[in-house]
Amino acid sequence: MLIEQFYLGCLSHASYVIADEASGEALVVDPRRDIEVYVDFLAQRGLRPVGVALTHFHADFLAGHLELRDRFQIPIYLGALAEAEFGFTALSDGDVVKLGRVRIAVLETPGHTPEGVSYVVSDGDGAAPHAVLTGDTLFIGDVGRPDLLSSVGVTSEELA
């Protein structure tokens, strides 16, 4: 199992490639707009992207999920409560995305946004979780803001 973080300091944005190196299958999570960093990384490692996943919609930067979808003809995964103007595969609590042996279980974690999900990554069925990708739901020593949708009528109390 491989989990590689890509951090863009100017936006305080973390994205990830999760992969099963044996099968070569990979998932890109919360990609930034400049997708070439992932394209190059995947090529160097001999990995094949089979999907791109968002933990939530990102209002503070432009994401590269549409570009990755179009470049590799792969599905986009979003939380089931997402309302998008593009096609996507809806993920609900308990759903599992499989990459070879790697298992990515979905936890619905609304709060920062209504459609927010976290991804629990394990190396095989029944294996203890190795990582949880929470998007902006949790931070080291802090939690995500539930007040960012107040301008469209969603209160902090509703999201929290």
- Major sheet: arrangement of strands: 1-2-3-4-5-6
User: Terminal Cα separation, in Å?
Assistant: 34 Å
Mean pLDDT: 85
Main beta sheet: strand number and arrangement? 6 strands, mixed
Q: Element order, helices and strands?
A: EEEHEHEEEEEEEEH
Form type: globular
Q: What is the helix content?
A: 10-25%
**Radius of gyration over all CA atoms, rounded:** 15 Å
Strand tally? 12
Which residues form runs of ≥5 with pLDDT under 50?
none
- Relative strand content: 35-45%
The class by helix and strand makeup works out as: mainly beta
The total count of helices amounts to 3
Protein topology:
Layout: E1 2-8, E2 13-20, E3 25-29, H1 36-45, E4 48-53, H2 65-72, E5 76-79, E6 89-91, E7 96-99, E8 102-108, E9 117-123, E10 129-133, E11 138-139, E12 142-143, H3 156-159
Parallel strand pairs: 3-4, 4-5, 5-6
Antiparallel strand pairs: 1-2, 2-3, 7-8, 8-9, 9-10, 11-12
